[in-house]
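Let us practice reading a record.
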Amino acid sequence: MPSFPKRVGAMTISRTAITAAAVLASALASPPAMAQNVPDLVSRTAFRVCEDPANPPFSTRKKDGFENKIADIIADSLKRPVRYFWAPSGPGFVRNTLNEDLCDVVMGYTIGAEMVQATNPYYRSTYVIVVPKGSPLADVQSIDDPKLKGHKIGVFEATPPTDAMLKNGTLGQAKLYPLLVDHRFNSPLDAMLADLKAKVTDAVVVWGPLIGESVKTSDGALVMTPLLKDVDRPGYSYRIALGVRHDENEWKHTLEGVLRKRKADINRVLADYNVPLIDNLGHLIPPATATSEAAPKIEPAATGGDAPAPQAGERSKPVPKGFQMPGPAPTNQ
């Protein structure tokens, strides 16, 4: 999983892929997926979702992740109860769950991943930099910002920012955190935040939806700034969709209708979890705008064009604690 929002292929940053050892241990210790009841294709009595049971803030067995909340919204429109099939993310997730008809949808799938047929996206997000309050790095909007030189940056290994850091000479001073872990037993994000608090690192660069809630609950101790100058770089921003089986076009269209109808409700959940949302031109969508019925539509592909100037009063709109509102992203050269 070279790029890590939710899933790229069958692997994710957030649901994060697990190590080969953990995969083997899980296979030996846990009953195979087929040991559970295998239902028919696309249930008409339940909204069947395959999820990772230990992947906050995205999904948990307690159903308190933001994908759990979005699943509830979709199920409400479908007039069906949510039924989960739990499985740890990692290699083979789609093959052993969705493709085995153990569920009808995978939440939070990256558009462009060929393992599933993606619906239209319901949000787009990007990488962010998170620093302690008062840090001189709080206004950084690009991994290439000269201000980062001489500072120790925390970053997940094998993710797009590491490529840029290698090129600009800052990777040597970075602290790398493992990407392939079993989240039931290990949380690299917690270690990353602990190091930031202890001043082992000066900043961390990570996928925004993964860290947004931690920033919100830090009581102002942390500031998150989207890397808006990098959103058009390959692997720095993603459109996130629902994943369904490739031959189920009617089901895909049904879900897209629900996503359109409940767009404002879904955005309220994302805003509550402090997920940074960006539009097709790479602009940050203020939470007050994102949660309105007139929220910008996220297209499957960027439309291009220059970034317009912010509207008068835009910066006065309320934002979550610790959320830095930068200016508009410049046109890429």
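A brief commentary: Confidence is low (pLDDT under 50) at residues 6-12, 14-35, 301-333.
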